[in-house]
Amino acid sequence: MPAYAVIGGQWGDEGKGKVVDYLAESVQAVVRFGGGNNAGHTVVNSRGRFQLHLVPSGICWPEMDSIIGNGVVVDPDGLLAELAELSSRGIDTNRVLVSERAHVIMPYHVLLDSLEEKARGSEALGTTGRGIGPAYVDKASRGGIRVGDLLELEDLMPRLEQTLAFKNEIMTKVYGGEPISLDDVLAKCSAWAEELAPHVGPAEQTIQDLLARDNKILLEGAQGTLLDIDHGSYPYVTSSSPTIGGAITGLGLNPQSIAGVVGVFKAYCTRVGEGPMPSEIQGQVADELREKAQEYGTTTGRPRRIGWFDAVAGKYSRLVNGFTGMVLTRLDILDGSTSVKICVGYRADGRELDRFPVNTSLLDRCQPIYEEFSGWDQPTAGATSLSQLPQNAITYVRRVEELVGCKVQIISTGPAREETILVEPVIH
User: Fold this and answer.
1) Looking at residue 48, what is its pLDDT?
2) What is the separation of C-alpha 78 from the centre of its chain, rounded to a whole number of angstroms?
3) Domain count, the chain
4) Which among 164, 408, 174, 214 has a CA at the least distance from the CA of 309?
5) Are residues 218 and 293 in the same domain?
6) 13 is annotated as an active-site residue
7) Which residue among 116, 291, 299, 378 is the one 20 to 30 A from 388 at the CA level?
8) Which residues pair with 296 in a beta bridge?
9) Are residues 81 and 61 in the same domain?
10) Of these residues, 41, 53, 109, 231, which one is catalytic?
11) Residue 272 scores a pLDDT above 80
């Protein structure tokens, strides 16, 4: 049976957690394929409000297999705290499985992340400071430690001793930081191994077995396409691949098993951290939208930058991922706006651009070309059918579809699971 991927189409924070929670009713398993606990997926349903960072967003559904794939970097302390919080609220976590191939965020990764970001000064990237980037660096340089290694601590010790000696040299002599004790790290690894052992296994084989038994699975990413390490606004990107390519490698999936790729977009744009954002707006309108939507990072608490919907970037995301459909979230935040805008092109260096530039310096110089639409006074908040939307809102949605080149299958009109318009089925 097929797999369906949920991919962020912008700079992250698109509402993927809600979308996954909504769609999970129709699948047997939800699997995370990339990123780490820099993700902040908010789920609101009859059981309450949950802020998830590593655990897949389908966890609240009964009998759900929740799998953390090999492409994820795992902070064991963060994961164990998240599992404990879920259990305390009556959520069954026994079916959470962590790939033994997933890499571990070690204490020195977190410290290095902070030291490196501080050293960049005015050129800081705006990382979450959770060790994500340094963990992926070690993975790529073949010096990382995987979750399965924690269960073979005696074999791991010589390699860990050598790695820590090297990291301490960097932290103390390059950045002027404090060294980390080997005994402290070993003690952490031992505790992690004991607590994580029931959840560790061959996740890739489990996923293949689920598909072979005619089960449907949902693939959940973190961040968004425009933050992709290869295809985003480099270097102001994350250290993983939030695109469909990352889903395939981050889970060991055959591409032929993927039946649908759903792109999730806000009805406007947001971004956290540094980097170009052509449709960014400032002033009263931006402040009002930010406060109305409470656009502050789930993971960092930082205020998000606000912009109008960028259809140039949206089309680019569709092309990179092969979106078979779209989800448009937070339409209700635009309620009451006198007018709304869509960025339909860029202008830079005396010429117009109709595609997303590869060159980040050029992207930073781009000025938006807008189409403006009349707003709507009738609220869309809580709407559950297209017939409940005002005509101006429908006009706006249809134009987004045209410009991105993809059918809107779901419209989210609020944070709760039921505050959703299903335009057409996503999972078949």
Assistant:
1) 87
2) 16
3) 3
4) 408
5) no
6) yes
7) 291
8) 303
9) yes
10) 41
11) yes
What is the rounded average pLDDT of the residues 224-243? 94
Q: Tell me, what CATH number does 275's domain have?
A: 3.90.170.10
Task: Using alpha carbons, list the distances in angstroms from residue 238 to 135, 219, 221, 261.
Answer: 12, 19, 12, 21
- DSSP tag of 146: B
Whether 142 maps to a domain, the answer reads: yes
Select from 227, 242, 261 the last residue of a domain.
Answer: 261
Per the annotation, the verdict on 149 as an active-site residue is: no
Catalytic residue among 13, 21, 138, 310: 13
Distance CA 310, CA 290 (A): 17
Parallel/antiparallel/unpaired status of strands 96-99 and 65-68: parallel
Whether residues 402 and 313 share a domain: the answer is: yes
Same domain, 296 and 390: yes
- Is 427 contained in some domain? no
Tokens 């939507």: give the residue.
293
Residue type, 53: H
In DSSP notation, 50-85 reads EEESSS-TTTTSTT-EEEE-TTBEE-HHHHHHHHHH
* pLDDT digits 0-9 by tens, 114-150: 888 877 776 666 677 788 889 999 999 999 999 999 9
Q: At what angle do helices 76-88 and 182-196 cross, to 10 degrees?
A: 40
Q: Are residues 229 and 359 in the same domain?
A: no
Among residues 385, 344, 388, the alpha carbon closest in space to that of 366 is found at 344
SS3 411: strand
Contact 249, 241 (CB under 8 A): yes
Same domain for 81 and 170, yes or no, is no
The reported pLDDT for the residue numbered 8 is: 97
Q: Do 96 and 121 sit in the same domain of this protein? A: no
Helix (H) or strand (E) holding 399: helix 391-404
Sole residue written with tokens 């297999």: 65
Query: What pLDDT does residue 180 have?
Result: 93
Give the residue numbers spanning the domain of 18: 3-101+200-261
- The answer to whether residue 68 sits within a structural domain is yes
Instruction: For CA atoms 188, 193, 195, 196, give the dihedral sign.
Output: positive
Helix or strand holding residue 149 (H, E): helix 147-150
- Report how far residue 277's alpha carbon sits from residue 7's, in angstroms, rounded to the nearest whole number: 19
Give percent above pLDDT 70 in the chain: 98
- Which of 196, 219, 238 is the endpoint of a domain? 196
Same domain, 314 and 373: yes
